[in-house]
Design a protein that fits this description.
The protein has 761 residues and is an alpha+beta fold. Helix content is 60%, strand content 8%. It has 25 helices and 11 strands. It has helices at residues 12-19, 21-38, 57-68, 90-104, 115-118, 141-155, 169-203, 206-230, 240-268, 273-300, 308-339, 350-353, 366-377, 379-394, 415-426, 445-456, 487-498, 510-544, 548-560, 562-573, 578-581, 593-623, 626-656, 661-693, 702-711, and strands at residues 76-81, 109-114, 130-137, 157-159, 162-167, 402-403, 435-440, 461-470, 473-480, 504-509, 589-590. The strands form 3 sheets. Strands 2-3-1-5-4 form a 5-stranded antiparallel β-sheet, sandwiched between helices. It is elongated.
Amino acid sequence: MTEVNSPPRLGGWTRFVTARPRLSLLVALVLTALAVVAGSGVADRLGSGGWEDPNAQSTYATKALEREFPASQPNLLLLVDSGDASVDDPAVTAEAARLTARLASERGITGVGSYWQTKSPSLRAKDGHEALIVAHLTGDEKATNDTLDRIAPTLRGTHGPVHVKVGGIVAVRHEMQTIIKEDLARAEMIALPLTLLLLVMVFGSAIAALLPLGIGIVAILGTNAVLRGLTEFTDVSVFAMNLTTALGLGLAIDYALFIVRRFREELATGADPLTAIATTLRTAGRTVLFSALTVAVSLAAMLVFPMYFLRSFAYAGIAVVLLAAAAALILLPAALLLLGHRVNSLDLRRLFRRGRPAKVSGEEGTGWARTASLVMRRAPFFALATTAVLVLLGLPFLGVRFGTADDRQLPSGAESHVVQQHIRDGFPGNPGGGLEVLAEGRATQAQYSAYKSRIAQLPEVTRVDGPLVKGDSAYFTVLPKGEAVDAAAQRLVGDLRATDAPFTTKVTGTAAVLVDSKHAIATRLPWAAALIAVVTLLLVFLLTGSVLIPIQAVLLNALSLTAMFGAVVWVFQDGHLSGLLGFTSTGSIETTLPVLMFCVAFGLSMDYGVFLLSRIKEEYDRTGDHNEAVRHGLQRTGGLITAAAVILAVVMVAIGTSRVTNTKMLGLGIALAVLMDAMIVRSLLVPAVMRLTGRATWWAPGPLRRFHERFGVSEGGENPPRGAGLYRSATPPQGATSHDVPADRNDDGSPNESGGVRAIR
């Protein structure tokens, strides 16, 4: 048996992290400094694409056309505005010819053409005052960005009788990268001081408040170094940096809040710092480890998908989660051991208490205890009402329409957005909406003509241009009747691919990319969902020993995300609040965004779920009283989870101030999800459901129970049998076994004079 006043029982991990605390912190400082150097310039090496499936037919066709027919894939557009004059005015024509020749002479550029060379109606605005010069920049994303940086300053602006604006895919992506970097820096400037202020309000102590912030900064800087290293081997999206900042701060603060709070609780019971650290790591430390694993698994599911946009978030997310957990479990205990009772120093809340004593540990969370009692007394009402509200909020997602990301992700004043909008509004046909059919294999002119006639007869086709032949390859341009990516255009992709031809054909274009991306996600989504579900079920079972709790956790977590998905459609697809939030609605949601948001938000919800369930399990092991365990668990973690959710929401809202729509959607959507999870699901739905399931919540069949007894863990650290071990009353509660002894009694039944809490083994 173990008395409170006996020397602490140090586990191997506790000995490791407390053996040389000053050395540990010094090594961490050196490694962080190296990470700053290693991660410098990472944003310049990140890409802004990655939404397409690299193995899709459309991707192959696009690359082949870029190689064989670069003029068919212009990624740079110069919008030439002739003012009051016509674009056919001799002075305008002469200046346009000079600009075209100048562009063609630049290295890294092929496929230069213009309205003045081809007289193509699609390159001339309907009002006759604007026309286009088109070109293709060669190389990968970094090479095209470098070329654009070199030539754009000399091209944009006024040239004699014309004014030039720069647009095209390359310009859109380049401008998106620049804006994201600027917005991320601003978000950090917003989030860091607000986070520190909230932490001071939660802890009171300025010293305690600085610890979570330090852990977050270490995680962010370390992840930037990891991403910089990954760019040497694979493509990484610039959007992943937003997740690095959000999760780095959010999860590090979650973990540090949990550990620091438990450490202070142990100090408040009279434990010395080393004993407090040992207990904290054996309890809260294990919970943090399990939480990190569940979040990492949710993010790792994005590795199932081939798009590097999604895979990048997995790289960044896994790195930042593991680094945050490592810092919380290695550096934080070392710092706490050195600080000891000084962790409570600089209690700024004394300024507002006006001489009233601070609450002792046992008095904290009484409001949450009352909430839990109320919810469990009216469990059927709260379970049905919260479920109905969440389902209602998610209904708009039933009308979701998927699309592709384009220039409208950028603010309305961005130059490349302005160019593309002018083309959409003022040029004939459907610019950017055409489909290209790549034909490979030797064929005669008669065979090409016969194939062209067949596709021209398809119901959704407006016009077919081509073929343009080069060796054994050729391509046709097919203009659909409707919008670039509407349902009709997507059906046309299937019709084109099904049309017989005497040669091999592959279809690309905006609608084809969308069709292939949707197919790639649909075929892999069940595997990603299964991975998340199976591993989450296993981890929660190992933590609780229950069959029902893991199922509840997965289902309630998924339910907590309904409000986020409903809001995404209602706001960003349908355009409500677009004026207030400052974005342009495209009438669709980019295909990969719901997958990304699900993985991130589900992981964060499990983060909070593990915190609550671990404390409930600890109390149930201690008392065997199911209802009291639920009440106690919410009392001890309700305020902590809410504080962590509010802090993470502040960080995500700061990310959501971005001028790029996808980033805005990601930040604001996940902020809503974590708040709904903490304030509705964890506070109301979970205790209501657990009250309805009662003691059956903890049931497991014999083989699984024995498996858990051998391999499972508990926050209490000793993995006692359910209902066994530590009691505060002389009479064991229902479900206790005959060998359980109350904590205030010795083994022979005599009073325990020390009053210490004993672990019965």
